[in-house]
């Protein structure tokens, strides 16, 4: 057991407008199961890279432990190889028998080590990397977003696996995963950093209690400031009036006063002015305490949505519907019966590869090609622009059964892929025909800093890229919102913000999302595929 001591850590990226960390100090134990929590862009992945020694920084990080990082970076030339051929390149000195033992705990067959890495699903790749990661000894492991793109079954396996381990930092926005796997949290607040015992839910409960207390104290301070300002102004007026009587007097009207009275009036005025200064000092102190109370309070802005109402109640109808890609031996899925009615929020659930995204793409293709004038407002951009940005064309598929889309249907779509985003926000808005000022206002409401607007979106974190697509979808009035894994990399606070928005505006939605808490909050129906 060792400690990692961070002292006066300051770090910023070259050409950045602000510091990621500024004079930060804290200590953590390498025996902990530590959850790292914070908004997108607060520096979670950056901190892991600082531990790995990838960047120069000011201050000190002292520890005797050795670090290893998930996910591993697999070289392009290794994707065609089997993992058994290059696992030693991922982790030097790893022993094969240990990897086999870890795979068994991950409920994975060893045969996935003998298949080309490019043919493995997201879940299988994650299991291989985790098995390699935990095959060493006496290391402190840095695990960055292990459940992104994983289906629910794979998430449950990873959750159970990590729950039985120790000695790691877990970066995740999945509340269910954090509650099951961590015993301490390291939280990157708005203006401070805190280390606390417990999981996400215990920290969140403590934070709400602390924030409520801070709000009450803030109200008390505001009232005290008003009272002090009134008393200060009143005393100042008295002092000024009294000061004016020091020189000159009417001996007839003020027969009891003499020249010697001047020193008495001066002393009295000085005392009053001293009281004014004391009150001003107390006012400044109260204001300082008041500002300190609210520095870390999360106050998510109220987002807005403009769902349209369609004249038909049933927007999508699939009967005995199936898809089979060209040259594939078996269909992706078949005999699917699905009906999406207005006001429903339907979640598609199932293992990776069961056809959830394929169904969505088929719906979009049918809607775009419908002669009745349907439109697909793609939050990720239109097809022509996607092609320019390197989006891969969809492999044509043969359909069976029937798929009917309501006429004149407007769909707002969020693609799970963000790799095509490039250029700055102004360029994005111009191509997508979005009002730039409104779009930036929504991004600010999603807690994206103004300094990001001038950057190339290639430099954004994955969470910030997702927020670009979400903001574009929120700006689009639509009959149906189709979101394909919208929450990958999105921070916990923004997830709660979106939950509140959806429950307030009741849009019709078709969603693929594996965040259990999010689904429990907003789904009206879950379709198992």
Task: Give a written overview of the molecule.
39% of the residues lie in helices and 21% in strands. The protein contains 15 helices and 18 strands. Strands 5-6-7-3-8-9 form a six-stranded mixed beta sheet, sandwiched between helices. Strands 13-15-16-17-12-18 form a six-stranded parallel beta sheet, with helices on both faces. Helix 3 packs across helix 4 (122-133) and helix 7 runs antiparallel to helix 8 (261-293). The longest helix is centred in the middle third of the chain and has 44 residues, at 200-243. It starts with a strand and ends with a strand.
Write the SSE topology.
Blueprint: E1 3-11, E2 21-29, E3 33-38, H1 44-51, E4 58-62, E5 66-70, H2 83-90, H3 96-105, H4 122-133, E6 139-144, H5 152-163, E7 168-171, H6 175-181, E8 184-188, E9 193-197, H7 200-243, H8 261-293, E10 314-325, E11 333-341, E12 345-349, H9 356-368, E13 375-378, H10 383-388, E14 397-405, E15 410-414, H11 425-432, H12 436-445, H13 462-474, E16 480-484, H14 492-505, E17 509-512, H15 516-522, E18 525-528
Parallel strand pairs: 3-7, 3-8, 5-6, 6-7, 12-17, 12-18, 13-15, 15-16, 16-17
Antiparallel strand pairs: 1-2, 1-4, 8-9, 10-11, 10-14
Helix pairs in contact: 3-4, 7-8
């Amino acid at each position: 057991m060792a400690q990692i001591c961070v002292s006066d850590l300051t770090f910023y990226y070259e050409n950045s407008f602000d510091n990621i960390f500024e004079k930060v100090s804290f200590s953590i134990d390498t025996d902990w199961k530590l959850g790292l929590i914070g908004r997108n862009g607060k520096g979670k992945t950056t901190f892991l890279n600082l531990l790995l020694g990838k960047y120069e920084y000011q201050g000190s990080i002292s520890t005797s432990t050795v670090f290893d990082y998930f996910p591993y970076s697999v070289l392009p030339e290794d994707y065609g190889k089997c993992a058994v051929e290059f696992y030693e390149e991922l982790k030097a000195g790893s022993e094969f028998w240990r990897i086999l033992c870890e795979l068994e705990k991950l409920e994975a067959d060893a045969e996935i080590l003998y298949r080309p890495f490019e043919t493995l699903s997201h879940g299988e790749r994650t299991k291989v990397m985790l098995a390699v990661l935990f095959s060493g000894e006496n290391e402190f492991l840095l695990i960055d977003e292990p459940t992104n793109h994983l289906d629910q079954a794979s998430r449950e396996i990873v959750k159970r696996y990590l729950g039985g381990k120790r000695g790691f930092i877990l970066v995740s926005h999945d509340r269910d995963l954090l509650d099951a796997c961590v015993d301490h949290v390291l939280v990157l607040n708005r203006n401070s950093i805190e280390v606390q015992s417990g999981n996400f839910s215990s920290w969140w409960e403590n934070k709400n209690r602390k924030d409520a207390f801070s709000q009450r104290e803030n109200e008390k301070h505001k009232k005290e400031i008003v009272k002090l300002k009134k008393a200060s102004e009143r005393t100042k007026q008295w002092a000024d009036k009294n000061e004016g009587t020091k020189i000159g007097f009417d001996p007839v009207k003020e027969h009891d006063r003499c020249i010697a009275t001047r020193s008495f009036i001066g002393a009295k005025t000085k005392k009053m002015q001293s009281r004014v200064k004391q009150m001003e000092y107390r006012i400044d102190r109260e204001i300082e305490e008041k500002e300190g109370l609210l520095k870390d309070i999360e106050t998510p802005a109220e987002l807005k949505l403009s769902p349209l109402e369609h004249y038909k109640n049933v927007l999508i109808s699939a009967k005995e519907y199936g898809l089979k890609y060209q040259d594939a031996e078996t269909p992706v899925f078949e005999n699917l019966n699905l009906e999406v009615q207005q006001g429903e929020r339907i979640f598609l659930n199932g293992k990776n590869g069961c056809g959830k995204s394929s169904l969505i793409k088929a719906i979009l293709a049918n809607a775009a090609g419908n002669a009745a004038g349907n439109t697909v407002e793609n939050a990720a951009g239109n097809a022509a622009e996607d092609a320019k940005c390197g989006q891969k064309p969809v492999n044509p598929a043969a359909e069976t059964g029937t798929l009917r889309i309501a006429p004149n249907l407007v769909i707002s779509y969020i693609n799970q892929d963000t790799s095509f985003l490039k250029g700055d926000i102004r360029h994005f808005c111009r191509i997508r025909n979005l009002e730039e000022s409104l779009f930036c206002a929504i991004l600010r409401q999603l807690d994206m800093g103004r300094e990001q607007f001038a950057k190339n979106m290639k430099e954004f974190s994955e969470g910030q890229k997702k927020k670009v697509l979400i903001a574009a979808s929120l700006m689009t009035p639509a009959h149906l919102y189709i979101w394909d894994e919208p929450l990958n990399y999105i921070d916990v606070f923004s997830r709660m913000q979106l939950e509140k928005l959806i429950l307030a505006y009741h849009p019709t939605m078709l969603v693929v999302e594996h965040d259990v808490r999010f689904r429990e909050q907003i789904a009206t129906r879950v379709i198992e595929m």
